[in-house]
Amino acid sequence: MEYKILNKIDYPLDLRKLKIAELKLLSEELRHKLIDVVSKTGGHLGAGLGVIELTIALHHIFDTPTDKLIWDVGHQSYPHKILTGRKDQIQTIRQKGGLYGFVKRNESKYDTFGTAHSSTSISAGLGIKIAKEIKKDTSKVICVIGDGALSAGMAYEALNNAGALNKQVIVILNDNDMSIDKPVGAMSSYLSKLMSSNSYSNIRWIIKKISNKFPKVFAKTLYKAEEFSKGIVSGGTLFEELGFFYLGPIDGHNLDHLIPVLKNINNNNFDKPIFLHVITKKGKGYKHAEEANDKFHGVNKFDVITGSPLSKSNSKSYSEIFGETLSQEAKKDNTIVAITAAMASGTGLNIFAQNHPKRFFDVGIAEQHAVTMSAGLATEGMKPFAAIYSTFLQRAYDQIIHDVAIQKLPVRFAIDRAGQVGADGATHAGSFDIAYLSCLPNFIVMAAGDEQELIKMIKTSILIDDRPSSFRFPRGSGVGLDIKKEFLPIEIGKGRVLQEGNSIALINFGARLGACQDCTNALNSKGYTISLIDARFAKPMDTKLLDDLLNNHEFILTIEEGSIGGFSSIVLDYIHNKRSKKNSSVVQNLIFPDKFIDHNTPENQYKEIGMDAKSIENKILSMIDPKEVDLKIIRNL
Ligand SMILES: Cc1ncc(C[n+]2csc(CCOP(=O)(O)OP(=O)(O)O)c2C)c(N)n1
């Protein structure tokens, strides 16, 4: 496609000069460009396709970046990136050194507020608006939030506060009736009701409503009459009750509607925050996306003509193995229940949902609620498995402490996406869960070295019914499964010795096990002998095994896919503060560095932080045979 108009657009200033007819052409070109790029890079597609017209209209009407535009989650921001000076870099998205897949402040002055975890936009926007008011700056603040993101408590906290403070933030609800999967909850039904009863508000009515040109008495009468004739939102929508001026719903793909409504919002001063309800279609304009169950939420590289992915992994992911195993176990034990916060397919719980629909709960993007609800289930003797990505579980930390750990309730945390996650980058990395769970009294903290270990840990946690437990596993797949084997629960607090040697003890916690095995094999072939340990537990730590290793090895190296404060810190605490015998071994730790790791492939990320097999080998050689490393460096020179 020849991008006749898009080629002339570098910044929003360029598109502000265009007429509606040209904006319509631009939307076609932008949509084409987005499909073309994401088919080659992979990434989030459906959400971006759904906001093409909205993105154009917002930058056309509002004076960005002086007016502040905040995209909730930020996965829909690719069109925004293309129109705000990043058109020529868009094909680098989610790759090393390229654009970020969400909104990032240091990427562009048009990126007002960094997003990736959902439902933060209204809070951030309110803060910005308050600051502007204090500074006597009258520019606008616009927050675009999806109906999925609106299922999170944080969004209501912000709406409630904005209404009470009466600050003139503009909240735009991008309602596509989709989260990643189908949205859940009463709010979702309420929005559908608003939409069907009010099916696309009469645009003239909306404009009249927001125009304050009429004499007050007349305007009041007109408003009443219109309200009555519509007979729908009388009594006020929920958003009006919260103190907002509710407008909508309007068709988010119709620029003839979007432009005048946004223009009126921009030109009028309101004495209330605005809530504009916009209806869009996820995947709009690309047949394969519109027809897909997930509306092409997140995709790998694909063929544009067929919509089929260009490559498919044959091996089962850890998440699928989790979903299948829990589902199997739940056939034998009807007290097992599974909880997800809007990530049924991401966590593999879609498999559980198919088999046990009555014991599966998708609570929406509501991690805090998911944890406390799980705690409630546990008080009644159920066995709740809360399957939440490491990074999203951060949201529910007080609930983990106050509702689960202090009450010693046996909630099982299945922590997916542990460690580096690749293209989704720093906002999605699972770096802190080992630290933030291991420091809590009463917790049992496990990490799976491979898929077989994951199955054993699921079975183990079913048996842990007197305290909370967690097991973490990474994104994607590992070494694979030996399906002929039967996997049994493991003994709590017992690590396993995979190989015994003298040169060093390499103690692994988690899914670096494969890299440790490769490194051990390489060192074995060079004549070193390595003790390779899979610790399995950060808590309770296998202190007997650790004592044996300390007694018999001059060198110890621990490795884990997490920050300081996790497994290695527990090892060091034991050695320095709890162990009576003086330590004579050299103990070092491979942990994540004290910085956020940028998006890249997971392989490169682990290379960058010195946790691939070769780097571990070099680290070991630098400890046990520094001369050998020096020689190698000289040889390489
Ligand atoms: C706290 C948190 N939990 C889960 C996610 C994963 N997530 C990313 S987008 C998304 C769905 C968002 O739905 P919606 O806001 O309606 O946007 P849409 O994709 O439909 O445009 C979810 C659950 C997240 N980003 N943040």
Short descriptors:
Rossmann fold; globular; 7-stranded mixed β-sheet; binds thiamine diphosphate; 26 helices; 3 domains; single chain; 637 residues; 5-stranded parallel β-sheet; alpha/beta
| Main sheet strand line-up | 9-8-10-11-13-12-17
**By helix and strand content, what is the structural category?**
alpha/beta
Q: Which whole number gives the mean pLDDT?
A: 93
Number of helices: 26
**Total strand count, please?**
19
The CATH superfamily of the largest domain is Thiamin diphosphate (ThDP)-binding fold, Pyr/PP domains
- What ligands does this structure carry? thiamine diphosphate
CATH architecture of the largest domain: 3-Layer(aba) Sandwich
Strand content: 5-15%
The rough form would be described as globular
- Taking all Cα atoms into account, the compactness measure Rg is 27 Å
Largest sheet at a glance? 7 strands, mixed
Alpha-carbon distance between the two ends? 50 Å
CATH class category name of the largest domain: Alpha Beta
Helix content: 40-55%
Work out the count of structural domains: 3
Q: Low-confidence parts, pLDDT < 50 over ≥5 residues?
A: 221-235
CATH third-tier fold name of the largest domain: Rossmann fold
Protein topology:
Layout: H1 12-16, H2 20-41, E1 43-44, H3 46-50, H4 52-61, E2 68-71, H5 78-86, H6 121-134, E3 141-146, H7 153-165, E4 170-175, H8 186-197, H9 203-210, H10 216-230, H11 238-241, E5 245-251, H12 255-267, E6 274-279, H13 287-291, E7 298-299, H14 318-332, E8 336-340, H15 349-355, E9 360-362, H16 367-379, E10 383-389, H17 390-393, H18 397-405, E11 412-416, H19 433-438, E12 444-447, H20 451-463, E13 469-472, E14 496-499, E15 504-509, H21 513-525, E16 530-534, E17 537-539, H22 543-552, E18 555-560, H23 567-578, E19 586-590, H24 602-608, H25 613-624, H26 626-636
Parallel strand pairs: 2-3, 3-4, 4-6, 5-6, 8-9, 8-10, 10-11, 11-13, 12-13, 15-16, 15-18, 18-19
Antiparallel strand pairs: 1-7, 12-17, 14-16
Helix pairs in contact: 2-4, 4-12, 6-7, 9-12, 14-15, 14-20, 16-18, 21-25, 25-26
This protein binds thiamine diphosphate.
